[in-house]
Amino acid sequence: MPPRIPLGRSLRAVEFQSRCSKSSLSASALCFRSATRRYLTADQKPLPTADTSDLGPNQERLPHVSEEAAEMGKITGEGGPDIDQGTPIQEVLQRDSEGQEKAPQIIQDDMKSTTPKGSRQYSTSARRQQEAMIAFEDDEVELPGHKFGLPELPLQSNANMKHRYDPVIVQVTNLLMQDGKLSKAQTKMAKILNYLRTTPPPTVNPNRPLIPGAPPASHLPLHPVLYLTLAIDSVAPLLRIRSQKGAAGGGVALQIPVPLGLRQRRRQAVMWILDAASKRRSSGSGKGMFAQKVAQELVSIVEGKSALWDRRGGIHKLAVSARSNLSTGRRR
Questions:
Q1: Which of 146, 171, 222, 224 could potentially form a cystine with 193 if both were Cys, beta carbons 3.0 to 4.6 Å apart?
Q2: Is 298 buried (19+), middle (13-18) or exposed (0-12) by CB count in 10 A?
Q3: What burial class does residue 198 get, using C-beta atoms within 10 Å of its C-beta: 0-12 exposed, 13-18 middle, 19+ buried?
C-alpha cells in the first residue's frame, strides 16, 4: 500500500492562481500573474553622487597620454607636447576661400608671410621633426658599428679563446687540478693570486738573487701574475739527471745531465712547490688552506727562505760533476 502524503503540509507550499479569462486567452496563449512594480523618480529620492573630496590612492582619474607626456617633458627638461595649443586658424582658413576674405587683416597678413612648407607655426612636434630632418641632411650618416673594433688581419696564432690566460697561469692551474675538476683548480689559482696581491712586499735575500731583469720587490704585489712567474722561474732547475744503465760497462749506471726546456723547467719547479706546500703546517682549517700554503711557499721562495733553493743547487752541482759522462752517453 503506497504511503500517504500529508496534504496539510503540502498545501502550504502550493501557490494557487486564478484561471485565465477568455478575453485574456484570446490575446495571448499564456497567462502571467500581474506583479506590482515600483518606479524610482529623481523627485522622490535622488541618485547618489560620488564623493570626490576624499579619494583613495587608486581612485583618481588617469591623465591623458598627452598630459602625461607633457609632465614628463617638464621633469626631464626635454619639453613635451604643447597641450594648450590647438590647430592654428591659418590652417583652417587655407581650406576655406570665403573665410579668408572675411578674416581680419592681421590674420590675412600673417597667412601671406612666407612659411616653410609642411610646417606649423605653433606646433612643437613639427618643429622638432623639421630640425631633425635638416640635421640629418647636413650631417654624414654614421652607421652603428661594433662595440669593440674588429681584429686586425691576419690573426695571430694565439688569438683565440684557448690563449686568453697567461701561459704560466694555465700550466699551474692544470698541475693544481685533481680528478679533472678544473673549476676547483681555478678557484685555488684565484686564491693564490689574491694572497700574492694582498700580502706585504717581500724582502729579497741578496745571497739568493732572483732571475735577471726582475722588478723591485715593492712592485711585485701590484702584479700577482708577474710575482708568480718570477718565483717559479727563479727556483726552476736548468737540468735534470738521467741514469743510464750499463753506460760504463759491467752494468754500472752513469749520471747524465740533460737540459730542460722552458715548460719543463716550470713544471719541475711547480711540482717542487706543491710538494713543499703539502708538507707545511696549516695555520687554520678549511678548503682554501692548501692554496694559502702554496702562496706562502711562493713568498718564501722570493725572500730566499725556502728549502727549494738548496734542492735546486744540489741538482746543479751534481750535473756539473757528471758533465764528463756526456761523451759516454753520446757514443752509445
A1: 224
A2: buried
A3: exposed
Q: Do 125 and 81 meet the contact criterion of CB atoms below 8 Å apart?
A: yes
Give yes or no for a contact between 318 and 255, defined as CB atoms under 8 angstroms apart: yes
pLDDT, tens digit (0-9, with 9 covering 90-100), for 136-153: 455 555 556 777 777 788
Looking at residue 4, its pLDDT comes to 59
Q: Taking a C-beta distance cutoff of 8 angstroms, is the pair 238, 260 a contact?
A: yes
Percent of the chain at pLDDT exceeding 70: 66
Question: Are the CB atoms for 256 and 247 separated by under 8 Å?
Answer: yes
CA gap 128, 119 in Å, rounded: 10
State the DSSP code for 256: E
Q: Measured between alpha carbons, how far is 216 from 203 in angstroms, rounded to an integer? A: 10
Instruction: Print burial letters for 244-262: b (CB count within 10 Å at least 16), e (below 16).
Output: eeebeeeeeebbbbeebee
Q: Are 219 and 194 in contact (CB under 8 A)?
A: no
Average pLDDT for the chain: 77
**Complete DSSP assignment for 43-76:** TTSPPP----SS--TT-SPPPPHHHHHHHHHHHH
Give pLDDT, residue 31: 44
Cell of 284: 687554520
User: If residue 258 lies in a helix (H) or strand (E), which one and from where to where?
Assistant: strand 254-259
**237-261: pLDDT as tens digits:** 999 999 888 766 667 788 889 999 9
Phi and psi angles of residue 243, each rounded to the nearest 5 degrees, phi first: -90, 125
Question: Backbone phi, then psi, for 248, in 5-degree steps?
Answer: -95, 0
Kindly state the cell numbers that stand for 232: 717559479
Report the distance separating Cα 219 and Cα 235, nearest Å.
Answer: 20
Residue 117 and residue 126: Cα distance in Å, rounded?
11
